Amino acid sequence: MIALWIVIGIIAILIIVFIATYNGLVRLRNQVKNAWAQIDVQLKRRHDLIPNLVETVKGYMKFERETLEAVTRARNVAQQLPPTAGAGERAKAEDELSTALARLLAVVERYPDLKANQNFLALQEELTSTENKISFARQFYNDSVMKYNNQTQMFPSNIVAALTGFKPGEFFEATVAEEREAPKVSFP
Amino acid sequence: MWEQIRSNQTRTIVLVASLGAVFLFLGYFLGLVFFNNGTAGVIVAIIVWAVMNLVAYFQGDNILLAVSGARKIGPDDHRRLYNVVEEMKIASGLEKMPDIYIIDDPAMNAFATGRDPNKAAIAVTAGLLQNLNRDELQGVVGHEIAHIKNRDVLLMAMCSVLLGTIVILAWYGSRFLFYGGMGRSRRTTSTGRGGGGAIIIMLVALVLMVLAPIAAQLIYFAISRRREYLADACSALYTRYPLGLASALEKIAKSPYQLRTANQATAPMFIVNPFHRKMTELTSTHPPIAERIRILRSMAGASLADYDRAYREVKYDRRGIIPGAAAAGLIPIRAPSPEPTDEVRQARETSDALWRLGSYTIIECPCGTRLKLPPTFRELQITCPHCGRLNPV
């Protein structure tokens, strides 16, 4: 009789642990999803800012048609990616847009009139901030994916993950080299 | 890598538990002295504590915001601040955007409130906004967001209520002992229940009444300092740029102004201690600013493990501040933002926000003059005093 109760007790504990682990995995997966949605929001915001930026800048930068076109083109490519595109593909298109934008903002230095324009200053603030938000959202997404993947691969939660079909998530990789490297400081 | 924060909690819990122990001890011995019953004393102490907690809970965080004269801003009142807070909200994975307040004060400081991370607020002084560039502001806001995310506000509120209860119990206890207690001791001797035991209890109670508030205060300071270090580490992790916070702290340390509205009770909430008074390390809510800067500056990467390593080097403390952080992966420090610091623009941005908070309207005249119209101004047009143009209001 006692043996039976012990067996029932052990089974009950196992079930509770299973449920807790499962719920933990669901929570992590939702966090990954939310983090991904956050990246999406910020990317969309950047796409929305660009026509405005190009419009403001165009009048001042007569000789930078190519730079402007590169930005518009990169934006269109990134915007027209199908929603089914994976994290890696998205990251590549968005990184190209980042590069094009960085080039544009570097060129702005040559146009003092533009730099005094209130409208442009406000846009520049929005653009800088959106770039930051994208990289922070990306940072949080990657952290979340790492945490989630660890859970799905480590014992004992990997058993629960395998039984209930949790698949590892994909990282949003940064391909821009300088973003990966710490600044080098050298003393003469 | 977020799990490591939890292992830091253990030591905080030990400290909080010792604060609780001081509290219960005091209650027990006061009970022995006044009711001849330790348990009754503990119960009375807990009732006092519960009432204080209720008061603190219902009066809420708004007290702090109200006494510091903070005014709430919307997204368009100060774009840069709003954006930086949103950036840090995203980086920390906080679910809801905290409310943002500006304090019209030239002192450089900031604080966070809100027991619940979903109902939090961040307040920043105008002095801070005027003097910090984007990276520095980001570091400070990251520190405040970390306080919210780590639930430090709740922790420190609980601890300060506990501390306050201990101080009140000890104070009233000593008064009663001197005035009412004399009669009681006479009575106990006359009924013959006194003797050696009662005197010892009396002595212990006396010693506790003197020492408990001091001990509690020291423990409270220790908890507060620990949370400050942790918030610095988290800020570095969120921003991936510890140098931003370091240089912000340098500027803050150099600032000659002292916050007009701060007081002892609100001190641990700020990013740096709002008082300039010289304090020893043991009796301050904040770690020495120079030490915090040195730790941040000597970080090799941006992870919590890097902070822990730097902490151990600077403090010669083998135990570190975030135990268990060693396992975290490599997180490099990012490059500084390219944005040049335009101090005139920063100052103008901040003063505009303050004017707007006072319901002033700001009009840009095409000649570059900025007209600030008070809320009482009722005309439809205004002549620019500089170039004579008529501007619609």
What does this structure look like?
The complex is a heterodimer of chains A (188) and B (393). Chain A has helices at 2-58, 65-79, 87-108, 112-116, 118-153, 157-164, 177-180. Chain A is an all-alpha fold and 188 residues long. The longest helix of chain A is centred in the N-terminal third of the chain and has 57 residues, at 2-58. The radius of gyration of chain A is 24 Å and the shape is rod-shaped. With 393 residues, chain B is α+β, with helices and mostly antiparallel strands. Chain B has two domains: 1-357, no CATH class; 359-393, no CATH class. Chain B contains 13 helices and eight strands. In chain B, strands 1-2-4-3 form a four-stranded mixed β-sheet. Chain B has a two-stranded antiparallel ribbon with strand order 5-6. In chain B, strands 7-8 form a two-stranded antiparallel sheet. In chain B, a hairpin with a 7-residue loop joins strand 3 (110-113) and strand 4 (121-125). In chain B, helix 2 (38-59) crosses helix 7 (152-178) and helix 6 packs across helix 10 (242-254). The N and C termini of chain B lie far apart (54 Å). The chains are: A mainly alpha (188), B alpha+beta (393). Chain A binds chain B through residues 31, 35, 38, 42, 118, 121-122, 125-126, 128-129, 132-133, 136-137, 139-140, 143-144, 146-147, 178-183, and chain B through 1-2, 79-80, 83-84, 86-88, 90-93, 134, 138, 238, 240, 301, 329, 332-337, 339, 345, 364.
Indicate the proportion of strand residues of chain B. 5-15%
Shape of chain A: rod-shaped
Main sheet overview of chain A: none
Structural class of chain B: alpha+beta
Number of domains of chain B: 2
- Would you count the extended β strands of chain B for me? 8
Question: Low-confidence stretches of chain B at least 5 residues in length (pLDDT < 50)?
Answer: 185-192
CATH topology of chain A: de novo design (two linked rop proteins)
